[in-house]
Amino acid sequence: MRGLLPLLAVGHRSGRSAGAGAEVHRWSLAVATFVTVISAWLFVVSAATSLASDERIAAREPVFVENSGQSAAVARWMIHADSVDNKQFLVLYISPLRNDAMPPPGLPRWPKPGESFFSPELLKSANAQEFTQRYGEFGGVIEVSGLATATERLVYHRPPTDTPFDNRDGLVAISGFGVDPSSFGRDYFPSTVDGFGKWTVSDIYILILAVIALPAALLLFLAVRSNSERRDRRLAMLDALGAPASSRAWVLVGEALVPVFLGAIAGFLVALATTYFNIRVPITGYLVRSADVDSARRWIPALAIGSVALAIFLVVATQLRRAARGETRPRHLNPRFRRWLQSAFPVAVALSIWGAATARDGGARYSPGLIVFLFALLGTLISLPAVLGAGSALLGRAVARLGRVASSPGLIIGGRWLNQRPMMVARLCAAFVVGLGLLVQVQVQQAWIVQQARGLANGVAPQALTVGDSLLILRTQSSPAEGRHFGALVGPDKFLRVAEIGGVPTLVGTCVALKEFGELRTCPGATAQNVDSVFDRFNLRGNLLRGGTLISAPDFKVTTDLDADGSTSGYFVINDEMKIGATKIANAAYATLSKPYVSTPGQEWITGGLAGAAVFNWVLALGALGLIILALAGALATSGMFLTNARSLGVVGTYDTRLSLYLGIATWNLGIPLLFAGAVGSGVAAFLGVLTLHIRRVGSVSMEVLGAGFGTVALLAALLTVLCGIGAARSAQTWRPVAD
C-alpha cells in the first residue's frame, strides 16, 4: 500500500499539471462517468416502473366465475371504452352483489348507482367538468394504487341499473380482484389495460440501448482517449526508467480516479433524487413516480461503483495497449476511403431523389423506389461527415487567404489549422448529424400517421371528416323502452334507430329524420322498404350510411314504424349545436341506454392513428437525449484535440498574449466551421425529410426538431469557442521550450 499511494499521487499531480488538454480530459471523464451511471439507471428505472405497474394491474384484474359457480360471485364486472380529445380510454362497469364485497383497488368504496370515479389524468382534460357529467354523478378520484401508471386514463362506472350486465353475452360475475402478475404474457393477458400503442418494457430496453447506451459508450471511449498523446509520452518515460506495467497502470489510475469518482457521485445523487421526486418525461407526458422507483434504490451504489470500475478499466486497458503497440498518435481515416465517401455523397443524394420520385403512393412495401430511397438515405447520412470535412478544408483555405489580405493572425492560424485538420469538425458533427437526420425521419413518420389518421392521406373517409360532429354514432344494445326514453331527450326527429328486423338491417325513424340524410322519393310507411326505393339522392350524411359504419351495413331497409320489433345495434343522432349539442347527446345516451359507445364518423380511425403516432414520442424523447450525449462526446473530443494543437502556439505567446487573438483562432477554427456543419447537416436532414414527405404524400417536417438540432450546434460552437480560446491563451502564457 505504501508503494501504491505514491504512484497514485504521481498520476494525480501529473494530470493536474499537464495543461488545458488534461483539464478537458478530466472533465470528459467526469461527464462520461456521470452519463454511464444515468444510462444504466434508466434500465433499472424501466424495470422497476414496469414491475410496479404490473403489480397494480394484477391487483385490479377481475377473477371471473363460471355460470355454474354463481354462488361465489361477489360483484359484476365488464369492460367498455370511450374517448375524449380523440384519445381512447377504458370504462370499467362494476356493481357489487354483496354488501361485504371489497371494491377494486384505488376506490375507497363501491360507486353508487349512476356514479363514477375518474383517474386524475382524465380530470385534466379541457372539458373535464362537462365530461364527468357524461356518466352521471361524480364519485371521486381513483387513487394511484388502482392505476397502471400515474397518467393512465380510466373510469370506474356503476350503471343506474344492472341492465347492461344482463344484456352482456359472456362472463360478468366475479369472485373478487387480483391475479398473479408473473403469469402476464405467458398464461394470462390482462383485460384492464389497452395495449394498443403502448411500449412493452422489452421495447424500452431496446430503445434505451440504441439511442442512449450506445452514445454513452462512445462518450466514455472518447473520454478515456482524450489528451492521449501526453499520457503516451509519460508512459514512455516511465517505461524507459524501468517501471513495470503495474506501476504505469497505477499512475494512470491516479490521474483518472478523482474525476471518475466525482462523475459517479454526481450520477449517484441524480439517480437517488429520482427515488424521492416524480419525474415527467418530456414529449411523452409520462410520469415516473418516485414510489415506483424507490424499491430499486439499493442498486444505485452498485451502478456507481460499476461505472467507476468500467471507466478506470478502459483508461488503463486502452492506454497500456496502445503503448505496447508503440502507438503515440491517433489513427486517421484512410484518405482513399475518405475520398470514396465524398464521391459517394452526390450519388446517394441523386439516388434518394430518384427513389422518392418513383416510389409508389404512400410508400407501399416492396416498391423498388422505396427500397432505393432507404438505402440512399443511409448512404447520404454516412457520407455526409466526409463531405463536411472536405467543406471545412475549403473553408479553412478561404479563411487563411482572407487573413493574409486582412493581416489578421487569428484568421491565418485558424484557417490553416482548419485546412490541415478538417476532419476534426467532421468528427464532432458525424454522430450528431446522422442522429439528427434519423430523428427527423422519425418525426416525419409520426406526422404522416397523424395526418393520415385525420383523413388527409389518399382521400380516405372524406365524407366522415366533412360530416364532422354533425352526426353522432351510438353503438349500444338497448331495449325499446330505453330507446324511447333516449328519443324523448334528443327529440324524435333527430335520430334513427338501427335494428335487425326479420334478419335484415333496418333504419327506423320519422320522415323528418330521414330527410336529414338526403332527398326522399317517398316517405316509407310501417312496411320496411329498400333504401334505393326511399331515397332519390343522398347528402354527405347519407353517403356515409351507404359506405357502412360501425352499426350499419351498406345495404339496408327503411321504415317509419318506431315500435318495430327487432334487436337494436345503435343510433344515428343528428347533432344540432343550436339546440342540444354533442355533449348533451352523450350525456343523454349514458343516462338512458345500456353501455353506449358515442363517437363521430371516423373517430375510431383517428383515435387509433393518434395512439399509434404517440408511440414515436418515446423515440423523440429518448432520441433527443441521445443527441445531447453525442453532442457532448463530439464537443469534448474536439476541444481536447484543439487544446492539444494549441500547445504549438507557445511561440506566438511570446509575442502576443492578448485573449482576443486566441478567441479569434478558436472562432475561425471551431465556431464558424461548426455553424457551417450544423447548417449543412440540418439542411440535409430537412431535404431527406421532404423526400420522405413526397413518398408519403402528406405530413410536415418539424421546424422545432430542426431548430433544436441547429440550436444545439450553435450553442456548442459558442461554448467551445470561448472555452477553447481561453484554454489556448492559458497554454500559450505558460508555454516553456521543451526539446526544441
TrEMBL record:
Q: Which residues form the ABC3 transporter permease C-terminal domain?
A: 207-317
Keyword Transport (UniProt): no
Q: Coiled-coil regions in this chain? A: none
* Key words of the record: Cell membrane, Membrane, Transmembrane, Transmembrane helix
Question: Per the UniProt record, which residue ranges are transmembrane?
Answer: 204-224, 256-279, 299-320, 340-359, 371-395, 424-444, 615-637, 670-693, 705-729
Instruction: Report the superkingdom from the record.
Output: Bacteria
| Xref: Pfam families | FtsX
**InterPro entries documented for this protein:** ABC3_permease_C
Protein name in the entry: ABC3 transporter permease C-terminal domain-containing protein
